[in-house]
Amino acid sequence: MTSSSRRRAKRSKTSSSVDPSTPTSDARNVDLNEAVDEGIQEELVRPTGRRKGTGKKTVESSSDLELKDDFEEMNRRLQDIRDLGHQRYEIMKERVAETKKFNEMQEARQMEKDIEFLSKPIDHLQGDALILAQMRRQKIKEKYGL
Protein backbone atom coordinates (compact mmCIF):
# COMPACT_ATOMS: atom_id res chain seq x y z
CA MET A 1 0.00 0.00 0.00
CA THR A 2 1.48 3.37 -0.97
CA SER A 3 1.46 6.47 1.11
CA SER A 4 -0.91 8.26 -1.28
CA SER A 5 -3.51 5.49 -0.99
CA ARG A 6 -3.19 5.64 2.79
CA ARG A 7 -3.87 9.33 2.69
CA ARG A 8 -6.89 8.88 0.50
CA ALA A 9 -8.23 6.25 2.79
CA LYS A 10 -7.77 8.53 5.75
CA ARG A 11 -9.49 11.42 3.98
CA SER A 12 -12.37 9.32 2.92
CA LYS A 13 -12.78 8.02 6.44
CA THR A 14 -12.99 11.48 7.98
CA SER A 15 -15.17 12.93 5.24
CA SER A 16 -17.59 10.03 5.39
CA SER A 17 -18.50 10.88 8.96
CA VAL A 18 -19.44 14.44 7.97
CA ASP A 19 -22.75 15.16 6.30
CA PRO A 20 -21.87 16.16 2.71
CA SER A 21 -24.75 18.64 2.51
CA THR A 22 -23.35 20.83 5.30
CA PRO A 23 -20.49 23.20 4.56
CA THR A 24 -17.20 22.33 6.20
CA SER A 25 -14.90 24.65 8.04
CA ASP A 26 -12.03 23.76 5.77
CA ALA A 27 -9.85 26.79 5.04
CA ARG A 28 -9.87 25.97 1.33
CA ASN A 29 -13.55 26.90 1.14
CA VAL A 30 -13.26 30.31 2.85
CA ASP A 31 -13.38 33.46 0.74
CA LEU A 32 -10.97 35.96 2.25
CA ASN A 33 -12.29 38.80 0.14
CA GLU A 34 -15.77 38.46 1.63
CA ALA A 35 -16.79 41.45 3.79
CA VAL A 36 -17.60 40.68 7.40
CA ASP A 37 -20.21 42.59 9.37
CA GLU A 38 -18.74 44.22 12.45
CA GLY A 39 -21.92 43.65 14.40
CA ILE A 40 -21.60 39.90 14.09
CA GLN A 41 -19.20 38.38 16.51
CA GLU A 42 -18.43 34.77 16.09
CA GLU A 43 -16.83 32.78 18.79
CA LEU A 44 -13.62 31.36 17.44
CA VAL A 45 -13.18 27.73 18.23
CA ARG A 46 -9.74 26.20 18.31
CA PRO A 47 -9.36 23.33 15.91
CA THR A 48 -9.09 19.98 17.54
CA GLY A 49 -5.83 18.22 17.19
CA ARG A 50 -2.51 17.93 18.94
CA ARG A 51 -1.86 20.48 21.60
CA LYS A 52 1.52 21.08 23.02
CA GLY A 53 2.00 19.52 26.41
CA THR A 54 -1.15 17.42 26.39
CA GLY A 55 0.57 14.18 25.39
CA LYS A 56 0.62 11.09 27.52
CA LYS A 57 2.83 11.21 30.55
CA THR A 58 5.56 8.65 30.35
CA VAL A 59 5.66 6.13 33.09
CA GLU A 60 9.05 6.04 34.74
CA SER A 61 10.63 2.65 34.59
CA SER A 62 12.79 1.25 37.35
CA SER A 63 15.93 2.06 35.35
CA ASP A 64 14.75 5.68 35.03
CA LEU A 65 14.18 5.83 38.78
CA GLU A 66 17.64 4.37 39.39
CA LEU A 67 19.18 6.94 37.05
CA LYS A 68 17.25 9.70 38.79
CA ASP A 69 18.48 8.45 42.18
CA ASP A 70 22.04 8.24 40.84
CA PHE A 71 21.76 11.78 39.48
CA GLU A 72 20.42 13.09 42.79
CA GLU A 73 23.26 11.34 44.64
CA MET A 74 25.87 12.85 42.31
CA ASN A 75 24.25 16.26 42.66
CA ARG A 76 24.32 15.95 46.46
CA ARG A 77 27.99 14.93 46.38
CA LEU A 78 28.89 17.84 44.11
CA GLN A 79 27.12 20.21 46.48
CA ASP A 80 29.03 18.69 49.41
CA ILE A 81 32.31 19.17 47.53
CA ARG A 82 31.38 22.77 46.75
CA ASP A 83 30.48 23.38 50.40
CA LEU A 84 33.79 21.86 51.53
CA GLY A 85 35.65 24.07 49.08
CA HIS A 86 33.84 27.12 50.44
CA GLN A 87 34.66 26.09 54.03
CA ARG A 88 38.33 25.62 53.07
CA TYR A 89 38.38 29.04 51.46
CA GLU A 90 36.93 30.64 54.61
CA ILE A 91 39.45 28.81 56.81
CA MET A 92 42.29 29.95 54.54
CA LYS A 93 41.08 33.55 54.78
CA GLU A 94 41.01 33.28 58.58
CA ARG A 95 44.51 31.77 58.65
CA VAL A 96 45.86 34.49 56.39
CA ALA A 97 44.36 37.14 58.67
CA GLU A 98 45.80 35.41 61.77
CA THR A 99 49.22 35.09 60.13
CA LYS A 100 49.16 38.75 59.14
CA LYS A 101 48.24 39.75 62.69
CA PHE A 102 50.99 37.50 64.10
CA ASN A 103 53.58 38.99 61.72
CA GLU A 104 52.54 42.50 62.68
CA MET A 105 53.00 41.61 66.36
CA GLN A 106 56.42 40.10 65.63
CA GLU A 107 57.46 43.22 63.73
CA ALA A 108 56.31 45.41 66.63
CA ARG A 109 58.35 43.31 69.10
CA GLN A 110 61.40 43.46 66.83
CA MET A 111 61.02 47.23 66.56
CA GLU A 112 60.95 47.48 70.37
CA LYS A 113 64.13 45.41 70.59
CA ASP A 114 65.82 47.51 67.89
CA ILE A 115 64.90 50.76 69.65
CA GLU A 116 66.15 49.32 72.93
CA PHE A 117 69.44 48.38 71.26
CA LEU A 118 69.82 51.86 69.78
CA SER A 119 69.22 53.45 73.17
CA LYS A 120 72.00 51.44 74.91
CA PRO A 121 75.43 53.00 75.10
CA ILE A 122 78.22 51.23 73.19
CA ASP A 123 81.14 53.38 74.42
CA HIS A 124 82.40 50.66 76.73
CA LEU A 125 82.82 48.15 73.84
CA GLN A 126 86.20 47.55 72.19
CA GLY A 127 87.50 45.84 69.07
CA ASP A 128 85.21 43.48 67.18
CA ALA A 129 82.29 43.97 69.59
CA LEU A 130 82.34 47.71 68.92
CA ILE A 131 82.48 47.16 65.15
CA LEU A 132 79.56 44.66 65.27
CA ALA A 133 77.47 47.02 67.45
CA GLN A 134 78.10 49.93 65.05
CA MET A 135 77.18 47.76 62.04
CA ARG A 136 73.99 46.63 63.74
CA ARG A 137 73.07 50.23 64.62
CA GLN A 138 73.61 51.22 60.98
CA LYS A 139 71.32 48.43 59.71
CA ILE A 140 68.61 49.39 62.20
CA LYS A 141 68.79 53.04 61.15
CA GLU A 142 68.51 52.03 57.48
CA LYS A 143 65.63 49.68 58.23
CA TYR A 144 63.51 52.40 59.88
CA GLY A 145 64.80 55.33 57.84
CA LEU A 146 66.43 57.05 60.81
TrEMBL record:
Residues 1-65 are annotated as: Disordered. Residues 1-13 have a biased composition (Basic residues). Residues 14-26 have a biased composition (Low complexity). This is No apical meristem-associated C-terminal domain-containing protein. It comes from Helianthus annuus.
